[in-house]
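Cont'd.
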Amino acid sequence: MRDNTTTGQGRMRWDGNGEMTRLYIAGDWGTSNLRLYLNGPGGVQARVDGPGIATAGGKAGELLDELTRPWVAQHGSLPVLLAGMVGSSIGWVQTPYLDCPAGAEALGSALLEVRPGVRIVPGLACVNPTGAPDVMRGEETQLIGLLALHPELRRGRHLICLPGTHAKWALVHDGVVETFQTALSGELFALLNGGSVLVPPPHRKAPTDAATFRQGAERGVASGGAILHRLFETRARQMRGQLDPALAGSFLSGLIIGADVAQAISLFPATAGERAATVVLVGEPALTGLYAEALSLLAVPSRRLDGGDCVLAGLAAVMERTQW
Amino acid sequence: MRDNTTTGQGRMRWDGNGEMTRLYIAGDWGTSNLRLYLNGPGGVQARVDGPGIATAGGKAGELLDELTRPWVAQHGSLPVLLAGMVGSSIGWVQTPYLDCPAGAEALGSALLEVRPGVRIVPGLACVNPTGAPDVMRGEETQLIGLLALHPELRRGRHLICLPGTHAKWALVHDGVVETFQTALSGELFALLNGGSVLVPPPHRKAPTDAATFRQGAERGVASGGAILHRLFETRARQMRGQLDPALAGSFLSGLIIGADVAQAISLFPATAGERAATVVLVGEPALTGLYAEALSLLAVPSRRLDGGDCVLAGLAAVMERTQW
């Protein structure tokens, strides 16, 4: 961790090596899952899981108390830092978005205290490269954690992609999120794979065929992102005997991911000195593998990182910069 | 109707004015509805409706017999000509697609006799302007009917759009469909409006706000069709207080239709002499009105025609050209 000893009114203390000298509770509270960590000197000491904020609803506070009672009983009152959809309109309280550019310092200065001792990391907002307002909530903490875990990404300008339901493409400059762009890729795939004419009902499952994915990705990349007139191709190829209906989902997945990377690379051009040429892909290895393959069709190099520890590292990085 | 008296082996007869001299049954059999017409000299003499082919399933023949029994009882055996999804994989029998370029003559020569006296108009296939295989089934009969009803469209090259679940953009040259392009616009809107994060559950209804539609259409047109990175804007604007959640569907509708027309105009450029500048929009007035507005943002003139009578006119036009 960075050496960033707080002084004066700060209630959190750090030793000379930048290690926290007291315990706190870090919480990754998304729509579907809650992961609570007892964190502090020497790293995570305990972990407990709970229901997502969509389920917890109006009882977030009681649930937090219940799940952390053993830790508080042992260690006394502990500061709590939460990130994710807990701070959204479906969460405990809706925290205002922090405008980009923003990094760990800015996030640490903009925590919302939802009740004494419990703070929530705000989401980020920006005007994205298409000129539209854009938002993220939860991914800002992943990004900050990624930078904490990979110091080399804290220098220079990097394009970082977090694929998923709402894929986020973030341009990070010297450790600060400058701007970002959301693509509806994962949600669009789920809707089309699960309930459209493109994939016949018996075959509406997770795609698995690598060669067919690649065919779709080639078409998606060729679209440059103009996917509305490419989607029906998934059905027409079946009607014309050019695509096995059982593989329709794999083709569709390639089409969407290919369109995603082609448009993103066009929105964030790697012109001379603008950003590092290598795109950083963060997430589940299976998914980042698909994105890496689609990027390779554009001859864009990529680096794949597992995002597993990023939220916890991000919460720690924000905690370090907080006057608590 | 065109003067096209058949001779020799033809079983259908025409008088010297191109009017049919005997009765036949015309059927528009789509996924959800069946419309049967007793047609012939002087026009439609009777009509009966029935269930769509998705419901009729394997009993299409029996259903047809049952619904037309009174007509046959009165007039004796009658030839039957059907169009639509009745000829698809979910239909009575799957008719092969006819490759473009194709017009009424070609369609009339490629009817599939599903049983003695009952024929189905084939769908059309092409390689579309994106280089992909594309198909239509039912719309070919609408297009032929449109040309029959509007003779001025039978000369020169025209871009004709049939908006809907699967919007079809067809390039028609001297009465022949040269090529066409499907956009998944209607189905995509229905899926996203009905079940995505873009439109909050209480507001998942048909869009109605004209000003918000126009805002979305401006953004969609500006995308040039690259919609994957624009869709999330519908949600982000709500999060940032720039879009009333109750109007999210109207914005989304504009976004998709704007992207549809922008990409279609780019795929079918109206370069010198290539095609008439005016796009012909065929369909429900409310929907063609939205497409006309989106086209106007690109300064593309359009002409709106109600598609109500097109299928019947198309069946008649094909019938005229059939050796029966």
